[in-house]
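# nightly structure sweep
# worker-07 picked up a monomer target from the shared queue
# config: single-sequence mode, recycle default, output format = structure tokens
# input follows
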Amino acid sequence: MHKNKETIISVKNLSKSFRLKIPSKGLKNNIHSFFFPKFSSINAVNNISFEIKKGELVGFIGPNGAGKSTTLKMLSGILFPDSGEITVSGLSPQKDRKKLAYKIGTIFGQKPQLWFHLPAIDTFELFSKIYEIDEKEYKKRVNYLIKKFEISDVVQQPVRKLSLGQRMRCEFVLALLHNPEVLFLDEPTIGLDITIKKTIRALIKKINQEEGVTVILTSHDMDDVETICNRVIVINNGEIIYDDTLEKIKEHYGDKKIIRIETNNPIVFKERKGIKILKQNTHEVEATIDTTKIDFNKITEEFLKKNSLSDVTIEEPPIEDIIEKIYKKKKKINKKLEKVTQ
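# output follows
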């Protein structure tokens, strides 16, 4: 995880809570609560700490309400924490918000930054003035990004006439216009078709490799995370419950393998403890093998003795299944702790 590189984001003991008005039932209670409202406090982020090295591609994931967006908003200076310390590119997001704006880029899949009725190129030019980019440098940079994201045929069209895929490419150019050191991506591929998603993912990785931009990605599309990121921070109920590489997460929690086999002979393969057959016909079988209950190598050796193999593929379980398993494990631990402390 870029052990020899400098830390570009540091978060220490970060917490953020929100006061929510408790709703009342009935007209009388509604009138009373208008004058004497009652509030409850929700811990959106609860004492989290982590560091991100320069150039890392980090997936920041969790269910709805886990604290992802709240954390990103604090990292970018939009929200103020209740307690804790944050530095991004050597700056405090809350104390140095204007300076930080020159260091970071943001893309929110559901909150466009482009002016809807103007051509994208007009918004690019406006942002070049806001970021005080030299005219010569701006033209060089914008032409490079337009070519990179293949939008030369759409930048002169009003944004309202662009497809979602075209608009998102323009959003990326806007976010990268001022050469940011850190790129915050919140659901950048939401609503896009599979082809455009693949293109956007490839472009994110390319920008990271060529310019060393640090990328923090939140997404409910686990294909985004698995394709783009080499590290995953899992947050749930405002707490970090996992922080490591994708390889380690699969190694620790990916105890089930999916195997697909084709044979030349009528297949000999039976379901037993640790093996669940998903589908089977005369010459093909697809099954899951639980490596905590049965030796995977022993099973494959046994199978080869009884069958003439034509083709075989072995896959890890989908990353979303592994993440769900982490949530469930953490939930069980919390329940045990509650019983102990009661």
